[in-house]
Amino acid sequence: MVKSKQLSRNGYGNKTLCRLESERVTLFFGPFKRIIHVSNQSYRVGIVGATGAVGQELIGLLLARAFPLAELRLLASARSAGRTLDVGGKKLTVQEARPEAFDGLDIALFAAEGAIAKALAPEAVKRGCLVLDKSSAFRMDAGVPLVIPEINLDATRSHKGIIASPNCSTAVALMGLYPLHQLFGVKRVFFSTYQSVSGTGADAIDELEAQTQAYAKGQPLPRKVYPYQIFQNVIPQVDTFGADGYTGEETKMRDESRKIMGLPTLKVSATCVRVPVVRAHSVAISAEFVKPVDLAAARQAIAGFAGATLVDDPANKVYPTPLDFSRQAKCGVGRLRLDTALDNGLSLWVSGDNLWKGAALNSIQIAEAMIKAGIPLKAKEAVSI
Q: 193: burial class by Cβ within 10 Å (0-12, 13-18, 19+)?
């Protein structure tokens, strides 16, 4: 029996959760503990990029959260079409992601590259489908809501068929920053990220593993994915550099934070760094607020926020780590303290799963929250992209 490295990484690698039955890559998801009741109505859901890392997370999370599925349609590239996946005891065949593949679907969860989303999302909308897209293709489009449901669910009420999810680092960071903004009013913010290699993809995970093994054996370290060795190193570059010296990732954190929080002039500076951690991102945040800050009130705000878990007892070495918040629905927030360089400033640390809250989970949570709030999934007016 061949084992799937990717599934093992995603938490589906033990015998009771996953099996690879043939060279055609047959996957098995379940049994899962079903923890969320969403609706008595059921929905026809498609996943674009179903065989990729985030696509597999989507499948597992839909089952784990008992999302009310009338149908689950798995879509991928022509190269992956025809593969058989065993999902919750049912064998499903992966179909090629083409316009007609969206016929009859209520929701399409896009876990593919931006170019694919650009080409296929409008086609899905034409067929009456709500598109929830994790790529950067539509995030900054004025006609497309960019949503974290704990923050700006109401933005979905004006959707025209496509709703975007933010970049993974933005999603994790705002789970710590937004509840403080609600209390004190954020004026400026500095982000420093510590981003896991899974954010780059499966090849980056393989490279970190290969370099670790090569080091242990005293062999030369292979390097293809990153410009520098990632084992025992950090790389202060995530995405390509722009003319202003900021990388694409850093620019996304600025622009997306402004849009999601409705603060178009918010002063944001980010430095994004890749670290030799397999899964879950962390962000160090220093923020200046309009109102005077109070640590006790800040902790209370974090503890009461739906997307966060307060983990803040540094005297006893209690604070969030990426290992502790891998495969967790909420992000951990800790190390809260008064910032000594900013007026009305707070510093804090956030850790969260980049494949869950930073990608797959946020999309599912948008759908769950819309259904619960009675927000129509079908657009009143189709998007024009």
A: buried
d(CA 274, CA 234): 6
The pLDDT tens digits for 113-156 are 999 999 999 999 999 999 999 999 999 999 999 999 999 999 99
Question: Among all residues, which ones are annotated catalytic?
Answer: 168, 281
Q: Phi/psi of residue 308, each to 5°? A: -130, 155
Task: Give kind and range of the element (H or E) at residue 5.
Answer: helix 5-10
- Sorted by where each starts, the structural domains of the chain and their CATH numbers stand as 5-137 (3.40.50.720), 170-354 (3.30.360.10)
For 340, residues 6+ apart whose C-beta sits below 8 A from its C-beta are none
Is the distance from CB of 227 to CB of 237 less than 8 angstroms? Answer: yes
DSSP state string for 51-119: TSHHHHHHHHHHHHTT--EEEEEEEE-TTTTT-EEEETTEEEEPEE--GGGGTT-SEEEE-S-HHHHHH
- The DSSP secondary structure of 236-283, one letter per residue, reads S-SS-B-TTS-BHHHHHHHHHHHHHHT-TT-EEEEEEEE-S-SS-EEE
